[in-house]
Structures are given as C-alpha cells and as structure tokens.
Amino acid sequence: MKTVVIALGGNAILQPKQKGTIEEQMANVSYSAQQIVKLIQAGYRVVIAHGNGPQVGNILLQNAAARDQVPAMPLDVCGAESQGLIGYMIQQCIGNELAKAGLDKQVATVLTQVVVDRNDPAFQNPTKPVGAFYSQEEAEKNMKEKGETWIEDSGRGWRKVVPSPAPKEISEIDTIRTLVENGVIVIAAGGGGIPVEKKGNQLAGVEAVIDKDLASALLAKQLGADILVIATDVSHVAINWGKPDQKDLETLTVEEAKTYLDEGQFGKGSMGPKVEAALGFVESGGEALITSLANLEAGVKGESGTRIIKG
After folding, report:
1. Which residue among 9, 35, 50, 70 is least enclosed by CB atoms within 10 Å?
2. What's the confidence (pLDDT) of residue 14?
3. Cβ–Cβ under 8 Å, residues 186 and 110
4. Could you give the angle at which helices 271-283 and 254-263 cross, rounded to 10 degrees?
5. How far apart are CA 249 and CA 252, in angstroms?
6. What is the pTM of this model?
7. 199 catalytically annotated
C-alpha cells in the first residue's frame, strides 16, 4: 500500500474574497475531504498537511484588537492555535466523508513542532510579513522596545516581518509514523509546523514562519512516503504562464525544473516554492505531483497533473 502526503494549499480552506466564516471554510474543507476520501477508497494511505496563512492572519488581528484586554500570544502559539482549528475542520469533514463511504477508519490531528536552525540566514534577514498594518510611529516603537523588524508594505502601512527558515526535523515524526502504520489518516505539520529550536534536549518556540510546502516535503521524506502531492489551484505546472505560448507540463525532470527555476519561469511567490519543495523530495528518492484538488485522484494514478521525476 502506497503512502501519499498531500499538502493542501490555502484555497482548499479559504477562497479569495471570502470573509472566512466557519460556514465558508467548512464548505471548502468538505470538498477537499471528498477528493481525499476518493484516494483512501482507492487503497492509498494518506497523510495531510495544510497551509494556515489566512487563519493565522485572523488570529493576529484578534490579538491586536484585544491587546488592551488580554495578552497577545507569540507567533509560534498562534501557529499552534491554527493547527488545532484547521485540523478540527479537516478531521471532521474527512470523518463525515468516510462515514458516507462506509469506511471504518480513524482520523487524527497531530500538533506538530518543526525544528529550525538558529544559524539559518533567514534569522538575519526576516522577510515574511505577518499581522495587521500599523502606523510608522507604532512600528518604530515596536522596533525600539521589542527589537522587532518592520517594513513599509506597498503604501498600506507598516507590518512586522519575521524569518522564514528551512525546516530541519519533524519533532513528532515517530508518533505520526506509528499512526500511519496502524491505518490512521493523519493531519500533521499544519502551516509548515510550529517553529521550534533545540536547546540541548529541550524545545522552545521561535518567532518565525515555515514554508508549508517545504515542511510537507520534509514530512514525506522522514515518513518514507511514496508520493508527495502539492495541491494547488491549477491542474498543471506551466512554462510561459499567462502568455499565448503557455505550455502545461505533464512531466518535469529534476534537471528541467532547475533550468526553468533559473530562467524565472516559476513565480517566487507562487509556483516557484512548490517546485523547489517537490525537487527536494524527488532528490531524496520519492516522486512528486503538483495538481489541483479536482484532479487529485487522477493525478496520483498518473492520469493528470505535473509529475516531477528524477529523469
């Protein structure tokens, strides 16, 4: 039985221009669950990772709005909160779809800590904007009093920026592996994982954001998964995107992918990180697929999407 790690993009939980009500998010997650259960029915073992950008953003806004009443929580704690709320939605929706299909399987969400290295260059150059927009005066106050890094963001105000270091280790990997081997459908490494650093044999949270796709690739690698699926809002990776000569790619070798990345074919804020994450997994011996949720089952069966192979 093959093991598939599925990295759900943000659109699987919250669509653009939606307000983010629980009804909206549950409807989106329910559709995602329907596609995932098709894979389970086809005999695959499934592990699910997911993004959390909009949800963490909302938690930070809630922190800001209530800062005079309750203490604001640091980013690692906000990430943990988002793992719980998104995990709950995915866990319930998959459970409901399994019941409809007459499948007696358990679903579990694992609160997942992901170890990063304090020597990662990202800590010297924070680039990931988080939270609400503030005035320059408030930003300068936080920089002076808290040692934070803030930037002016596109004329809309000032935002805090945090490091985005590379994931090094999935802390709960043995627990996740045990659950998977016993037939449990696992939701893990949500939002790239809760960023932590090791201090001897102790863990401590850090103010950072980990790329969801890189963390999913690491999870797949450490699990020894057969396939990593990065589910996004397009059916294929393409070159010359949005141009008259756009070409959808059915297969992409490691060498071809690196060439296209060097040429700037894949956007740094969109397809680029997904291809880079897929490459990391393929180079470790696995097989990767980038496709849309609607094509999930067909993609895993080799009938759709872009498959990244060694060559």
Report:
1. 70
2. 86
3. yes
4. 150
5. 7
6. 0.93
7. no
Number of H helices, E strands in the chain: 9, 17
- d(CA 93, CA 27) in angstroms, rounded, equals 9
Model confidence pLDDT, tens digit, residues 171-211: 999 999 999 999 999 999 999 999 999 999 999 999 999 99
- The catalytic position among 87, 212, 286, 295 is 212
Of the residues 51, 79, 87, 128, which is catalytic? 128
What's residue 306's pLDDT?
Answer: 96
List CB contacts of 213: < 8 A, sequence separation 6 or more: 7, 230, 273, 274, 276, 277, 278
212 is known as an active-site residue: yes
CA dihedral 262, 267, 271, 274 (to 10 degrees): 60
The yes-or-no answer on residue 2 being catalytic is no
DSSP string for residues in 263-296: HT-S-TTTHHHHHHHHHHHHHTT-EEEEEEGGGH
Known catalytic residue at 201: no
CB 123 within 8 A of CB 165: yes
| Superfamily for domain range 3-114+171-309 | Acetylglutamate kinase-like (3.40.1160.10)
Active-site entry in 63, 274, 286, 295: 274
Reply yes or no on whether 274 is catalytic: yes
Which one is catalytic: 11, 28, 52, 63? 11
Q: How far is CA 72 from CA 11, 79, 248, 292, in A?
A: 27, 13, 45, 36
